[in-house]
Each structure stands twice: as structure tokens, then as C-alpha cells.
Design goal:
Elements (H helix, E strand, L loop, with lengths): L23 E5 L1 E4 L5 E6 L4 E5 L7 E4 L2 E3 L7 E8 L8 E9 L4 E4 L2 E4 L5 E6 L5 E5 L9 E2 L2 E3 L7 E9 L2 E2 L4 E8 L2 E3 L9 E4 L6 E4 L8 E5 L10 E2 L5 E9 L4 E9 L5 E2 L21 E8 L5 E4 L10 E2 L2 E2 L3 E10 L5 E10 L2
Parallel strand pairs: 2-8, 10-17, 18-24, 25-31
Antiparallel strand pairs: 1-3, 3-6, 4-5, 4-7, 7-8, 9-11, 11-14, 12-13, 12-15, 15-16, 15-17, 19-20, 20-22, 21-23, 23-24, 26-27, 26-30, 28-29, 30-31
């Protein structure tokens, strides 16, 4: 049967043509810590093969397939993938990066020596200024007890070892660095680097004080009063009770401790001679017989009559005169003495006898 004669119906013929261009649909870059091979991967449209190159154009084809393992790299390098059909090497190449991150290290961590009972500050430096320094109490495992370039320890009496590593971009030092907090024991010396001439004293007052006179000789020392710990640079001590106080000095360099006894004189405002064991006699407080020489203690009644010439080697005045108990009243004292600086002084005032 032939078709196309006059009068035959018109036939509409349609055709369609679809051209498929291969392309890369996904890339998976990767990174490592330190030198080594890097595993990369890429996928292409169905039917296309992934080809790997070492440059955006031209260059060398380094491998086919969805996965590619680079040779050992010591620096970050970019590779390029092409979706190919029928071994065609033309088309768009897609970059994919193999990143090599440097492994940070601790390059400086110095041991620190402190005196027993003190805290210390340890410092460290990493190979990268942007790395995080981690401090541990153990050589392996555990969680950091501190992070950062410095670590302030708690007060300790024992030598303590700490361990450090550095972390950056997910890479951590392969080993931890050891740093020690050395502790020197406190030793007490029988001699003091300062004398009473280096001390200012305010006594017989509402606020008794001891002050170490500031001088270059004390710049390397720290102090405390009546306590063998918690030394500080403080050189002024106030609100001290009458009595003999021990000023402790500790050498910041070798932790040697020395002691200086200092007298704060006090003259009681009252006494109660009732034989209960408390305030039964009136006596001078803080009398350091090694440094203060008392020559006389006189007691007078309210009319100025001398009622007692107190025994300097005794335990004070007991409230008697010629064997008779004196009544409750106000009395006056006069004390003559040479103080710890070698100065002659007289102190006088009043107090109450309470029965």
C-alpha cells in the first residue's frame, strides 16, 4: 500500500532528542593531622566515570574511580575531578581539597619553685599561637583540669607534676609534656635579717600596731605576725593585743624563715583581786625582759599617797598595803623603763581596783 496520493489524510510526525552531559554530583574532601595519605571521594551522574587530576587544566590524570587515596602529603593540596564518558577528557573539573593540618606541640613549659604552703603559676607556650593548651594531672587519659597558657595551682606542700598537650583543628600533640611545681620546705633560722631598729611600734593605745620600716633590705621577704603560714608582702599589722608577738619573715628565694620577737606593752585598766585566777594582780603586759628594762613601778592612791613599790621580779600588785586590803577605788601608776630601742621612758595612768 502506498501512501501520499491526493486525498490521503495528513499524518503529524513528531520526534524528540535528549542529550545528557556528565557532571560531578558530590565531592567529599578530607583532612589529616600531620603528613600522610588522604582519602578523597566524589560521585558523578549515572554512566559517567570519575577521573582525578592534579590541576584545574591539563596536568596529569592521577586516577579513576569514585575514591582516591593521595600519596603522602606534608602540605594541603587541591585535586580536581571530571565526570567522563567514553574516555572523554574534556569538561568542567571540580576542585576537592586534601587538607594537612599541622600537629601542635608544647615548645616551652618551665618548672616553678614555690615555698611550702603556697600556690604557683605555671606557664607554657605552644608551637601555634592559636592552639589550645590543655593541663592534666596524669600522663595519659583524663580530662583537662585547666586550659590556656597559664595555670594557677592550689596551695600545696608536695611536689606536683602536671602534663600538657596542645590541640588545634582537631589535632592534638602526640605526647604530653611534663612540668613540675617544686616545693621547698620552710626552715626557721635563729637569726633575723632585720632588728628591732627596723620596726615601728605603737603600744598602750586603742589600736596597737607593728610596722616593718620599708627599705630595700626587705624587698625579698614576705611577712606574717604570730602565724607560721599565709605569708604576704604586708608590712603593717594592727589591732594587736598587748603581749610579746612573733614577726615571721620568709625569704621568697629559698623559703628560709626567721623570727623576731616584738613587745607590745599594755597597762591594764582594772584588776579583780578575788583569787579566782583571773586578773588577780595588776601587772604590765607584754614585758619582754630580754629587751625592756623596767627600773620602777609605783602605785598611788587617789590622794597621791604611794601605796606600792611593786617587786620587779614578782607577779604584780595584789591590792594590799602594809598587809591590809585596800578598798575598791581608782589608783594611779608610774612605770619607769628603758624600751627595746634603748630609750628611757615613763608611763603613767590610772586603773580601777574592783573587789
Amino acid at each position: 500500500m502506498e501512501y501520499g496520493w491526493p486525498g490521503d489524510p495528513i499524518i503529524n510526525i513528531s520526534t524528540s532528542t535528549q542529550i545528557s552531559i556528565p557532571e560531578i554530583t558530590n565531592t567529599t574532601p578530607s583532612s589529616i593531622c600531620g603528613a600522610g595519605p588522604v582519602n578523597l571521594s566524589a560521585t558523578a551522574t549515572m554512566g559517567a566515570e570519575v577521573l582525578w587530576f592534579d590541576s584545574l587544566t591539563g596536568g596529569t590524570q592521577v586516577g579513576p574511580g569514585s575514591n582516591y587515596t593521595t600519596p603522602v602529603l606534608s602540605a594541603t593540596k587541591t585535586y580536581y575531578v571530571l565526570a567522563s564518558t567514553n574516555e572523554c577528557l574534556e569538561g568542567k573539573r571540580t576542585p576537592i581539597t586534601a587538607t594537612v593540618n599541622a600537629i601542635p606541640n608544647i615548645i616551652s613549659a618551665l618548672d616553678v619553685t614555690v615555698c611550702e604552703g603556697n600556690s604557683g603559676t605555671l606557664n607554657a607556650t605552644a608551637s601555634s599561637t592559636t592552639a589550645t593548651i590543655n593541663w592534666y594531672s596524669s600522663l595519659t587519659g583524663g580530662t583537662p583540669i585547666e586550659t590556656g597558657g597559664s595555670f594557677a595551682t592550689t596551695p600545696t606542700s608536695a611536689i606536683t607534676t602536671y602534663y600538657l598537650d596542645a590541640t588545634e583543628n582537631g589535632c592534638t600533640s602526640t605526647t604530653r609534656t611534663e612540668v613540675r611545681l617544686e616545693v621547698l620546705g620552710n626552715t626557721v633560722s635563729a637569726t633575723s635579717p632585720i632588728s628591732l631598729n627596723d620596726i615601728s611600734i605603737v603600744d598602750d593605745s586603742d589600736n596597737n600596731t607593728i610596722t616593718v620600716n620599708n627599705s630595700p633590705a626587705i624587698s625579698n621577704y614576705e611577712f606574717n605576725i604570730d602565724r607560721f603560714d599565709e605569708f604576704k608582702d604586708e608590712i603593717h599589722f594592727e589591732h594587736l593585743e598587748p603581749g610579746i608577738h612573733s614577726l615571721y619573715l620568709r625569704d621568697k628565694t629559698n623559703c628560709g624563715i626567721s623570727k623576731l620577737d616584738i613587745a607590745i606593752l599594755g597597762f591594764p585598766k582594772f584588776f579583780t583581786p578575788n583569787n579566782d585566777g583571773f586578773n588577780d594582780t595588776w601587772k604590765i603586759l607584754g614585758n619582754d625582759t630580754n629587751n625592756i628594762q623596767i627600773s620602777a613601778i609605783y602605785i598611788y592612791d587617789r590622794f597621791g599617797k604611794l601605796v606600792a613599790d611593786v617587786d620587779l621580779n614578782g607577779n604584780g600588785w595584789d591590792g594590799f598595803y602594809n598587809g591590809e586590803r585596800l578598798p575598791s577605788s581608782d589608783y594611779w601608776y608610774l612605770v619607769k623603763f628603758t624600751d627595746q630601742y634603748g630609750n628611757y621612758r615613763e608611763k603613767h595612768g590610772n586603773f580601777s581596783l574592783v573587789r
